[in-house]
Design brief:
The chain is α+β, with helices and mostly antiparallel strands. The chain has 2 domains: 199 residues, Jelly Rolls (Sandwich), CATH 2.60.120.10; 98 residues, Arc Repressor Mutant, subunit A (Orthogonal Bundle). The protein contains 14 helices and 12 strands. The strands form 2 sheets. A 7-stranded antiparallel sheet has the order 1-3-4-11-6-9-12, with helices on both faces. Strand 7 and strand 8 form a beta hairpin. Helix 4 packs antiparallel against helix 5. The longest helix is centred in the middle third of the chain and has 26 residues. 29% of the residues are buried.
């Protein structure tokens, strides 16, 4: 039959009760900050997770005791985590907020999380199936992902997706490695098919003209990221809108200045991570409009928590064999998911 898809397992069952929550916190901290809920007893906590890597996806099948979750976008960016999580709550649920908006879900719901955005929730003991996929893998198929963070799919196509994720979790332990890529493609297709109606509804609820203008503005920004003339004035002139209108367009994205800065830093980081790239860091930064190296270095360190040189150094290490070793935790897989 051949080998099965790469898998790794974690469980607190063999640990002393007093150490179980801390061990779980260590392994999940690659993405989430977790804390005990007030009054819970550490000795009663249990958690386990089986993780599988298929194609460009990591899929986890987990159970965990009650806890409080939160997302730290800055830390995730520093760790190279730029993922979307699609999670089925087979049991349990959640309540909290995402981007300042209240969120709540229960058993049978599918929740979408953008791991680059803030979130906090309180969750009882739960059983989950989660798919982690690179942002760009989803963006290139369905476009702008703004508004998906914290969305709960509980009706219609959401039920179909829940059924599929439950079935997938049952099949993965025996899936042949040669079938992994096909399974990953099928999983991505059904996620997209189920998300499209939700995205359409969300976009119809917005001002059509504003949505078109935002897409136009983003397009102009992408085409001009290497140009020093990319400023709010340039955008206003190109788009034929006022500064006030421009700022309103990007208000939900942290402002136009921050949007441009993050897009530039993201492309610089990706360039530095490319295998074989030996261009001077200063030259790479200059290609994306950073004429002052001190300003660039500070902005990069503030965004990712590490320096440009450290990014290049970390990316130069060949970790291919290490990441497919059975003893490596799924947290390492998540750090290195790529399109």
């Amino acid at each position: 039959m051949g080998s099965t898809v790469p898998t790794t397992h974690f469980s607190t069952s063999d640990l002393p009760p007093i150490d179980r929550f801390d061990a779980w916190r260590d392994i999940i901290s690659v993405i989430f900050d977790v804390d005990r809920i007030g009054g819970s007893q550490p000795a009663s906590f249990e958690a386990s997770v089986d993780a599988y890597q298929i194609g460009n996806l990591v899929i986890t099948d987990s159970t965990q005791g009650e806890q409080a979750y939160s997302l730290s976008p800055k830390r995730n960016r520093a760790a190279g985590i730029d993922l979307i999580q699609v999670g089925l709550y087979r049991s349990g649920g959640y309540r909290g907020e995402a981007n300042g908006t209240s969120i709540e879900g229960s058993s049978g719901d599918v929740q979408i999380l953008d791991l680059a955005r803030p979130m906090r929730s309180i969750e009882p003991a739960s059983s989950m199936v989660c798919v982690f996929l690179p942002r760009e893998l989803l963006q290139e198929r369905i476009g702008d992902l703004d508004g998906l963070h914290g969305v709960d799919l509980r009706f219609g196509m959401g039920r179909l997706l829940a059924d599929y994720l439950g079935l997938l979790a049952k099949r993965l332990p025996e899936m042949a490695e040669r079938d992994g890529v096909a399974a990953a493609n099928a999983t991505l297709d059904i996620i997209i098919a189920c998300l499209q109606p939700t995205l359409t509804t969300m976009r119809e609820a917005q001002s059509p003209m504003q949505e078109v203008m935002l897409l136009r503005a983003k397009g102009v920004i992408e085409e001009s990221l290497r140009s020093a003339r990319l400023t709010p004035d340039f955008l206003c002139q190109t788009l034929g809108i006022s500064r006030r209108s421009l700022y309103r367009l990007f208000e939900s994205l942290g402002g136009v200045h921050n949007y441009i800065l993050r897009r530039r830093l993201s492309l610089i980081k990706r360039t530095l991570e490319e295998a074989g790239n030996r261009d001077r860091i200063a030259d790479v930064a200059a290609r994306f409009g950073f004429t002052c190296q001190e300003t660039f270095w500070r902005a990069f360190k503030r965004e990712y928590g590490i320096s440009p040189g450290e990014v290049r150094s970390l990316s130069s290490k060949d970790q291919t064999n290490e990441l497919h070793h059975a003893d490596v935790g799924f947290d390492q897989w998540l750090r290195h998911l790529r399109v």
